[in-house]
Amino acid sequence: MDTDILEVTVVTTERAKHFYSPQDVPVTLYSDADEWEMWKRRSDPVLHIDLRRWADLMLVAPLDANTLGKVASGICDNLLTCVIRAWDLSKPLLFCPAMNTAMWKHPLTAQQVGQLKAFGYLEIPCVSKKLVCGDQGLGAMAEVETIVDKVKEVLFQHGGLQQS
């Protein structure tokens, strides 16, 4: 992997900005406002379409219960869900569920995760640990190292990475 350089772009939701400072993200960062600033009239670039064409792989991490429900239902009301809805299904899309244990155990969650898998998306399962809310239990996003290893594996399988 040392000789491989991955180009990363982040698509954030407005709510996700609560958990980090956008100025601390060292790569290109897009949010809903960017979608509408770029597009003024017919034939202007459409950001969610440009992003789906550009990317070789999409990773949604974390995938909260709200966005999970939107994606499973086909709702695309922000930049992230529009990119996912327009995603080229011949390219890998990986998702990392993350939510409170009570939300994770709700019967809708299993249905919605199953729907994403039926689309061909790959789940990186959540883990059990102390959650953001202070509860202990299943629902935490997989460890970053686990996610990176899975992304490398999938990219290698799709010919986007040399094995190291």
UniProtKB/TrEMBL annotation:
Any single Gene Ontology cellular-component annotation: phosphopantothenoylcysteine decarboxylase complex
UniProt keyword terms in alphabetical order: Coenzyme A biosynthesis
Keyword NAD (UniProt): no
Pfam families: Flavoprotein
Sample GO molecular function, one term: FMN binding
GO BP: any one term: coenzyme A biosynthetic process
UniProt KW Signal keyword: no
Domain Flavoprotein: 6-154
Role according to the record: Catalyzes the decarboxylation of the cysteine moiety of 4-phosphopantothenoylcysteine to form 4'-phosphopantotheine and this reaction forms part of the biosynthesis of coenzyme A.
Family under the similarity heading: Belongs to the HFCD (homooligomeric flavin containing Cys decarboxylase) superfamily.
Protein name: Phosphopantothenoylcysteine decarboxylase
Lineage, highest ranks first: Eukaryota, Metazoa, Chordata, Craniata, Vertebrata
